[in-house]
């Protein structure tokens, strides 16, 4: 898989995340790029933020693709694995809880993507390792 394609897929996930837990709580967009455990995780976070009348503002500061592979599962279906180094900052807006309302984080994430019936790709799992 080309690095540019992997970068585009990761940025798509970042955009979907931003829209879901952002000021407009666009939960319906989550199904466009996420599935399985990733969909459940981000849907839950977005619903909690919406229920508390708050939202997150994310800024992707830097994205570096470390690895991008095409894999086959036991049935021969094509999957993708992307490992990326992400620098992001965020701010919690509208919450009365001021502790930890801002953060800057650098982390490595390994995404697992599955090809859908229509030929599109959805992020299904993510494994995060915070950099120290």
TrEMBL record:
All copies of domain Plastid division protein CDP1-like IMS, residue ranges: 6-123
Family matches, as Pfam families: ARC6-like_IMS
Name of the protein: Plastid division protein CDP1-like IMS domain-containing protein
Species of origin: Lactuca sativa
């Amino acid at each position: 898989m080309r690095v540019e394609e992997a970068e585009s897929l990761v940025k798509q996930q970042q955009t979907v995340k931003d829209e879901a837990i952002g000021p407009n709580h666009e939960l319906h967009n989550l199904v466009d790029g996420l599935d399985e455990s990733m969909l459940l995780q981000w849907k839950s976070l977005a619903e909690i933020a919406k229920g508390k009348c708050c939202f997150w503002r994310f800024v992707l500061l830097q994205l570096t693709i470390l690895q991008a592979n095409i894999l086959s599962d036991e049935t021969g279906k094509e999957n993708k694995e992307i490992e990326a180094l992400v620098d992001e900052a965020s701010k919690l807006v509208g919450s009365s809880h001021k502790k930890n309302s801002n953060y800057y984080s650098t982390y490595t994430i390994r995404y697992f993507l599955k090809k859908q019936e229509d030929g599109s790709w959805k992020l299904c799992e993510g494994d995060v390792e915070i950099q120290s």
